[in-house]
Amino acid sequence: MSLRLLDREFLDFCLHDWLAVGEIAERETVDAVLDLSETLARERYLTHFKAGDAQEPQIGPEGVTVHAEVKAAVGAYAELGLFGAGFPEDLGGHGLPFTVTCASFAWFAAANIATSSYAMLTVANARLIAEFGSAAQVDAFARPQIAGRWLGTMCLSEPQAGSDLGAVRTRAERVGEDHLGHRYRLTGSKMWISGGEHDIGENIVHLVLAKVAAGDGRLPEGTAGLSLFIVPRVLPDGARNDVAVAGLNHKMGYRAIPNCLLAFGENGGATGWLVGREGQGLRQMFMMMNEARICVGLGAAALACRGYGHALGYAQERLQGRLQGLGPEGASVPIIAHAAVRRMLLAQKALGEGALALCLYAARLVDGGDDDSAALLALLTPVVKTFSSEMGLEANAMAIQVHGGYGYTRDFDVEQVYRDNRLNPIHEGTTDIQAIDLLGRKLLRQGEGLAVLKGRITTTLAAASDGFADQADALKAVWAEVEAGLEMLRETEAALEVSTPFLFAFGHAVVGWIWLDLALSARGKGELLEQGTAAALRYYAACELPRVNAWLACCAAGAEVLEVDPGWM
């Protein structure tokens, strides 16, 4: 049995029937892109899934080298024009909607999340330059990435700063101006830089957050002083820029892409060009970070779906145990015949495919182009990133459990899938940072997106009276609890201290709505699809939605439960 990376029927249903992607792209084109993506993912990415993990990037006198198959796979991706798939034709792209490029990316993420990350970062890098850079900067630095000849990174964090970007200490000093704009000299270090140095492609374009020194040499405090700079590894004249890899981080997963500590300016200063104006860096970088958050969620969902595929195939083939009532003489049965295994498989389907649908829904909002879509996308972005990464990891843990002891060995892929997915709740903003964003910024301060979401949930509930009334009632009750919890937090000074359990509650309620909407859309689309979505909805409503009240109870308990003297711990 060939490995099911993703359920193609479910993916096609989500795109064509549920999200109506035909309104923005021709079906023939979409199907051709997905066919191409699945084939390339299987033939060039999946093939070195384990080898890239076992043979990590190496640092030597000439820099960092990666596994040969990683380099070949990224080259094949570039040859087929997939780096530019989502860019307009006047930039050398193919003009595909974001929804379609996300569906394409899901195949590569499922096959090999580490190797797929080179393209994810490069595309987001080029998109930011295309949006905020000058025409000369776009030509010099974005177009080569869109063509796949150069690769890109995002350089935010530093060893002493972690997630606190206000603590960034990389320094930028203006030294002149040329046809590429205001030129600066950068000194400092950046930590956790995926793809920061390697031997793929002709160049690496770093997007670097730094602070411009004042006349007295002091750096501004906080995030308002951050500016964004384009710092290529190789300068336009062919000289090597003053950027060096100072070390590699040895990770639990994602091992086929190097994660670097980069040193800028050890020999006088790295040359960089300002994007836009000084002090705009964080606002500009949020464009790349939000795209990356959707893609991180999508990658986590794809890994959850792959783990589910492994577990489902194993459960159908593995003979173990007997059915109750047959006694010791009964024949061994496939373990899928056991209720405990079916429960874990249903949970994986509900969490993994629910996360995949949520990510594609967010991508469709990107393509929506109206105020309602933008407001709802802003609200859902932290949910997309967190639900997919946290619940995708939970699904992968169950995939190991279905395999029993074998799942805990390197002989079966679910062990590595779990390790790879463990990064996703951390990078591009940890779960707790997403929680503060959702509650503090999107709900307590703004609220526009919530009104749009409530309207869409109301529409779904109104259509669910025939056949899914029980599930609709459960969802309606849960949303009432979520809204009551939010109103309670509006009156609490320490609301942000319980923002993480609220994010879990909110995200679970959102995906409950997603499954109800999917089940309604699946009617008449084929018996297997219709019954599969209905089964996932029934499971989710009965076994996942009740978790919402537990998280809300944690919110109601308040920050007092966290008031613990460190000495007691």
From TrEMBL:
<dbReference type="Pfam" id="PF02771">
    <property type="entry name" value="Acyl-CoA_dh_N"/>
</dbReference>
<feature type="domain" description="Acyl-CoA dehydrogenase/oxidase C-terminal">
    <location>
        <begin position="279"/>
        <end position="437"/>
    </location>
</feature>
<dbReference type="Pfam" id="PF12806">
    <property type="entry name" value="Acyl-CoA_dh_C"/>
</dbReference>
<keyword id="KW-0285">Flavoprotein</keyword>
<keyword id="KW-0560">Oxidoreductase</keyword>
<dbReference type="InterPro" id="IPR006089">
    <property type="entry name" value="Acyl-CoA_DH_CS"/>
</dbReference>
<dbReference type="InterPro" id="IPR006091">
    <property type="entry name" value="Acyl-CoA_Oxase/DH_mid-dom"/>
</dbReference>
<comment type="similarity">
    <text>Belongs to the acyl-CoA dehydrogenase family.</text>
</comment>
<feature type="domain" description="Acyl-CoA dehydrogenase/oxidase N-terminal">
    <location>
        <begin position="72"/>
        <end position="148"/>
    </location>
</feature>
<dbReference type="Pfam" id="PF02770">
    <property type="entry name" value="Acyl-CoA_dh_M"/>
</dbReference>
<feature type="domain" description="Acetyl-CoA dehydrogenase-like C-terminal">
    <location>
        <begin position="456"/>
        <end position="561"/>
    </location>
</feature>
<dbReference type="InterPro" id="IPR009100">
    <property type="entry name" value="AcylCoA_DH/oxidase_NM_dom_sf"/>
</dbReference>
<dbReference type="InterPro" id="IPR046373">
    <property type="entry name" value="Acyl-CoA_Oxase/DH_mid-dom_sf"/>
</dbReference>
<dbReference type="InterPro" id="IPR052166">
    <property type="entry name" value="Diverse_Acyl-CoA_DH"/>
</dbReference>
<dbReference type="Pfam" id="PF00441">
    <property type="entry name" value="Acyl-CoA_dh_1"/>
</dbReference>
<dbReference type="InterPro" id="IPR009075">
    <property type="entry name" value="AcylCo_DH/oxidase_C"/>
</dbReference>
<keyword id="KW-0274">FAD</keyword>
<dbReference type="InterPro" id="IPR025878">
    <property type="entry name" value="Acyl-CoA_dh-like_C_dom"/>
</dbReference>
<dbReference type="GO" id="GO:0016491">
    <property type="term" value="F:oxidoreductase activity"/>
</dbReference>
<dbReference type="InterPro" id="IPR036250">
    <property type="entry name" value="AcylCo_DH-like_C"/>
</dbReference>
<feature type="domain" description="Acyl-CoA oxidase/dehydrogenase middle">
    <location>
        <begin position="154"/>
        <end position="264"/>
    </location>
</feature>
<dbReference type="InterPro" id="IPR037069">
    <property type="entry name" value="AcylCoA_DH/ox_N_sf"/>
</dbReference>
<dbReference type="InterPro" id="IPR013786">
    <property type="entry name" value="AcylCoA_DH/ox_N"/>
</dbReference>
<protein>
    <submittedName>
        <fullName>Acyl-CoA dehydrogenase</fullName>
        <ecNumber>1.3.8.-</ecNumber>
    </submittedName>
</protein>
